[in-house]
Amino acid sequence: MNNQEDKPVIYTYPDPVLRATALPVENIDGNLLKIADHMINVMYSAPGIGLAANQVGELERLIVFDLQPGKEGREPCVLINPEIVLSEGEVKYEEACLSVIDFSAEVTRDAKVKVRGVDRHGKPFDIEAEGLLAICLQHEIDHLNGVLYIDHISSLKRALYKKKLKKKLKEMK
Ligand SMILES: [Zn+2]
Fold first, then answer.
1. Using CA atoms, how far apart are residues 133 and 106, in angstroms rounded to an integer?
2. 99 CA to middle of ligand 1, Å?
3. Which residues are designated catalytic?
4. I need a labelling partner for 6 at 20 to 30 A (CA). Which of 23, 90, 113, 129 fits?
């Protein structure tokens, strides 16, 4: 889990960077694209289907996702300054997160969303999503606002998780 600078590859709860609000991207420059490529690598090696910049310690409004990370001829999607412009319906799904270790829980989300953002070339585009993609986009955009999926579960379940995590972190020391 250590790199040369001894920083975590993926920041995990309760790290404060996961609670910070990421800032809108103003310039899509080499540095931003480097972060995007790093996130894609981290997502595939985890493996996960999505990652937000906060999770690698960067406060930029930037997410990457690929619902089929195991597929050959991978097509990762980079979305900059994503915004939910329309939402509809309700869906329940068992979610997990690379930043919330050893846990999963059912979360209620909007069933369909329309998300607006720009791609890595700065070209605006809309995604109309339902199913897992809609859930993934809402989960990742939440990260950019400092929100975790465990914020959407009952306080009792969240308290149980915190207790379990505390015990685990103690054992790891
Ligand atoms: Zn997550």
1. 16
2. 6
3. 140
4. 23
